[in-house]
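Exam revision sheet. Question 4 asks you to relate a sequence to its structure. Input first:
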Amino acid sequence: MPPSPSLTALHASLAERLAELRGVRPEDLPEPLLDVVVRGVKLPGGEVYIVRPDDWEALRDEEGAAARPIPYWARLWQSAEILARALARQPPRPGTKVIELGCGLGLPSIVAARGGAAVTATDGHEDAVAFAAHSLALNEQEATVIRADIANDADALADLGPFDLVLAADVLYTVANADAMLLILPRLLEPDGRVLLADPDRAGGRRFLAAARSLFHVQTKEDDDVKLHTLRPR
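Answer key, structure tokens:
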């Protein structure tokens, strides 16, 4: 069982933070957003616990009716699990400065923090920020969690760096994201830093890699249906 407070306390804390970030009253939050479950993810080095909305389809429909973006952040995607597994097998050293872009529920960030890295978890969606922060607390890990989008907040993200390690899992699902990643990564990395990018061979991922090879040395490993790319500056 997770080492955190009860689900009732977690629910209350989430509601308070989500309402604050959205600028609404807790009672005005959509019900599927607060209908949460805790899922254990078995990884090398120990199980990690993630809090997430229980019914993704119901949340998607509710958000669509309110003309809000599709809550892609609210699913635990295979790419995030593959990236987390790779980090668990070879954790960053204590003190390594790490940033995760598009962290969603925060699984890779939790694993990096568990190894003693100084982690900054970022996502452009305010709901993701709240859930990632609570998942970190659920696992008794510390990290900085901020709302920041790779395209619209590139300057603010660059000001936080440079970083030894940049993490991203399945963020290249749009052409805009692929182009934004290509622009921001050189601004985030230390000269001897690296990027770990998990992608299920999306068109945006192929577009990004085709352009990125002029800036980075790229090594790729396949794990199930996901490709894990390691990029190092040329």
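Marking note for examiners. Residues 75-233 form a domain with the Rossmann fold fold (CATH 3.40.50.150).
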